[in-house]
Amino acid sequence: MAESESLSIISLIINASLLVQLVMLLLFMASVVSWMMILQRGHYQRQAKNSFHQFEKKFWSGGDLGQLYRDGNQRASTHPIDGVENIFREGFKEFSRQRQQGRSDPDVVMEGIQRAMRVALAREEEKLEANLPFLASVASVSPYIGLFGTVWGIMNSFRGLANVHQATLATVAPGISEALVATAMGLFAAIPAVLAYNRYSANAESLVNNYETFAEEFTAYLHRQVHSDSGSR
Amino acid sequence: MMPAAVKMSDKSYFLPVVISVLMHGILLVLVVWGWESAELPKQKMTPRYVEATLVTIKPKTVQQAAPKPKPKVVDMAAKRKEQQRLQQAAEKKRLAQQKAERERLRKLAEEKARKEKEKKAKEQADKERLAKQRQEQERKRQQEQQRQKEAAFNDALKEEEALLAAQEDEVTAQSYVALMAQRIEQNWSRPPSARNGMKCELAIQLIPTGEVINVTVVKSSGNSAFDRAAEQAVKKIGRFDELKKVEPDVFERYFRQVTLVFNPQDLRL
């Protein structure tokens, strides 16, 4: 009965058994990594949204699309291009390539453009949703890990209780309180992960929808272009 | 395309990593330092419990035979002692007053006698002798009175001494009873329904070796599990070794059949 030492959280953690300590460490690491991903995702998605709006404005401003593509080329040499601009660039690249090769069948040309844009879209979608599965698994698993640590700690505390002649609340309480720290840490890691996962997957979905809409619009535009080209020839 | 993307993501991960690690570091520091103060009331509670269990000052109680560990006992004895002292003081004061009174009376009488003598010396020798006789009688009577008073005082003193001795015995007995209660408290297994403030009276029959012959609950606490646990604790102890040291007459007077109020202090509820 040496509870004369303080029952602060840090001393509880230090006095916990090895397995519980491991569980706590794991949860702490999970929390660190998931926060890292939360911040990175938030930053990336915000950037993607901004660049989408900017690009859309530029696209519908009525300028020359070839000029827009060349601007993009210049920027691509300095730093990589993200988001909706990639879809546009893939589509436009395919369109100009087909035109250079002198294909005349508009359906074949359109099919190639559409395929190129679908590939770019899929790649962008993947980028938007990267790391979200990790957040989802942290959100769903870390409470269980914490619970495991708690159950283990309480189990040990009760096993120790079996040897004590006079069982008071004071003999069990430190062990249980120590074990509950693991659950607290599990919840601490899980709650932000759940919130972030829900928010970011919804964001990603709406952005992908926007991209798809844009791709359709761009396809329509190119379709007009291709058919007018073939008509004039 | 892909290598570029990887490169980009490498760069963009740096800041989140730093922020996340910093955030958790701050949290750790908060846990280590900041929440210590919030734990303080809890810390206060634990020593109270320790204090309750640590009432094992056995040698002290045995050597001094002073009822230090049980404040209630001390109270009783101290009160009685105080009363006695007050009584004694009152008695002494009264005696002193009486003496002073007597002195004064005697002086007065002497003066009177002297005056009378002066007056009647010339007149009659008979009368003088008579007066003398009377005076002597008076003195004798006074002496007698004084002697009686002294005897009464001595009697009272003796009585008091006896009372004092009895009280000392009682204090010793009480300290032993407290010791027994402590032993029982150490050996009883606390039923879950026991609450603070519960007490029951146990009648324990003992023999001079300290062995328990019989134990019964005289006054229930109202909780049968509590009563049974107390009874079981006494039966489990079986023999109070401390009682071997008790003098036989004290044992006969107090411990042949002892009534003990079992009022455990180690409950937390």
Explain this structure to me?
The complex is a heterodimer of chains A (233) and B (269). With 233 residues, chain A is mostly helical. Chain A has one domain. Chain A has seven helices and no strands. Chain A has helices at 9-15, 18-60, 65-78, 84-101, 106-129, 132-161, 169-232. In chain A, helix 5 (106-129) packs antiparallel against helix 7 (169-232). The longest helix of chain A is centred in the C-terminal third of the chain and has 64 residues, at 169-232. Chain A is rod-shaped. The N and C termini of chain A lie far apart (97 Å). The mean pLDDT of chain A is 86. Chain B is mainly alpha-helical and 269 residues long. Chain B has three domains: 2-53; 72-168; 188-269, Fusion Protein Consisting Of Minor Coat Protein, Glycine Rich Linker, Tola, And A His Tag, Chain: A, Domain 2, CATH 3.30.1150.10. Helices cover 70% and strands 8% of the residues of chain B. Chain B has helices at residues 2-33, 40-53, 58-64, 71-120, 125-187, 224-237, 248-255; strands at 200-206, 212-219, 257-262. Chain B has a three-stranded antiparallel sheet with strand order 2-1-3, with helices on one face. The longest helix of chain B is centred in the middle third of the chain and has 63 residues, at 125-187. The chains are: A mainly alpha (233), B mainly alpha (269). The A-B interface holds A 1, 3-4, 6-10, 28, 31-33, 35-40, 43-44, 79-80, 82, 123, 127, 130, 165-170 and B 1, 4-5, 7-9, 12-13, 15-17, 19-21, 23-24, 31-32, 35-36, 39, 42-43, 46-47, 49-50, 53, 189-190, 266, 268-269. Chain A: The Tol-Pal system is composed of five core proteins: the inner membrane proteins TolA, TolQ and TolR, the periplasmic protein TolB and the outer membrane protein Pal. They form a network linking the inner and outer membranes and the peptidoglycan layer. Chain A: InterPro entries: ExbB/TolQ_transport (IPR050790), MotA_ExbB_proton_chnl (IPR002898), Tol-Pal_TolQ (IPR014163). Chain A: Belongs to the ExbB/TolQ family.
